[in-house]
Amino acid sequence: MSNLLGWATDHQQLLVWAGVISLIVFILSLLSLPWLVSQIPEDYFLPKKRQPAEWKHLHPAIRLLALMGKNLIGYALIVAGLLMLFLPGQGLLTLVMGLLLVDYPGKFRLERKLVKTPAIFNSLNWLRKKAKKPPLVI
């Protein structure tokens, strides 16, 4: 116990910064998650196979920039979601939103499996209701 207290005393600045970052991520998630969830088409999870995104038909340079930006935001949300599992914030919802943005093999199957979890499905639809959007259909 005294070892932990000694460590906390020696690293006060680190603990303060961790608290500040946690608060910033918490506020950003509260502001951005409802908007992000409202942008998911209501029938997004219905097909067995993913439909190509509209931006995939754009110029290759624009497509590459959009893909890089989308993945960067997705990875940031995944990291923030993992942190929020231990710090204040909406960890599971943030993780789901990050996983929805990042591209990887088997992504659509995982998305469908996660969204079919009643707690996640109900939370997503609660956010959509607040944004005056129709509920997701699975």
Describe the structure.
The protein has 138 residues and is mostly helical. The protein has one domain. It is 68% helix and 0% strand. It has 6 helices and no strands. Helix 2 (12-38) packs across helix 6 and helix 3 (60-84) runs antiparallel to helix 4 (91-101). The protein is globular. The model has no long low-confidence stretch (mean pLDDT 82).
Low-confidence stretches are none
Structural category is: mainly alpha
What's the total number of strands? 0
Strand content: under 5%
Percent of residues in helices comes to 55-70%
Order of helices and strands: HHHHHH
Pfam families: PGPGW
Keywords: Membrane, Transmembrane, Transmembrane helix
InterPro entries: Uncharacterised_PGPGW_TM
Protein name: Transmembrane protein (PGPGW)
Which terms summarize this structure?
0% strand, globular, mainly alpha, 138 residues
Topology:
Elements: H1 2-10, H2 12-38, H3 60-84, H4 91-101, H5 107-115, H6 118-130
Gist of the model:
The chain has 138 residues and is mainly α.
